[in-house]
Amino acid sequence: MDLSWINVADTSVKIGLGALISAISGYIVFMKTQSHNERKEEKVHFYKLQEEKKLKYVDFLVQSQELIQSHLYSACTPDSEPYKSYLRAFNEVQIISNDDIRSIAYNVSHDVQSFIFLNKNQQEISLLDGMAQAAREKVAAFQKLAQVEVTKQYSKT
Predict the structure, then answer these.
(1) Burial 50-82 (b: 16+ CB within 10 A, else e)
(2) Which of 22, 84, 106, 147 is most buried (most C-beta within 10 Å)?
C-alpha cells in the first residue's frame, strides 16, 4: 500500500513538472513570436515611411527645378498655383523629415524663392545666373541628403 501511494505521488509530480515545463516553454515561444511580430511590423512601417519620404522628396525636388526653369526670365507671383503647390510640397517635407533634411530643404526653398520672385527686368545676367546656380546647387545637395535618407536599411534601435 505504501508503494502504490508513492507511485501515485511520483506520477503526479512528473505530470505536474511536465505541465510546468510545457507552460514555461509555451510562454517563451509566445514572447519570442510576439517580439518577432513587433519587429516585423516596425520594419514594414519603416519602409512604408521611407517610400512616403521618397515620393515627397522627389515632388519637392521636381517642383524646385520646375520653378527655377520656368522663371529664368520672368518673376513669379506669390498667388500662382505652381508656387502654392511648391509651398505645400515644402511643408510636407518639413513635417516628415529629420532636422538635417529640414535644414537643407529650407535652404533650397529660400534660394528658389529668392530667384523666382526676383524681378528679371533690368537685372544683370551674372546676378541671375549666380542665383539660379546657387538654387541648383542647393537642390543637388538636397538630392544627395534625401538619397542617403531614403536608402537607409531598417535597424532596430
Answers:
(1) beebeebbebbbebbeebbeebeeeebeeeeee
(2) 106
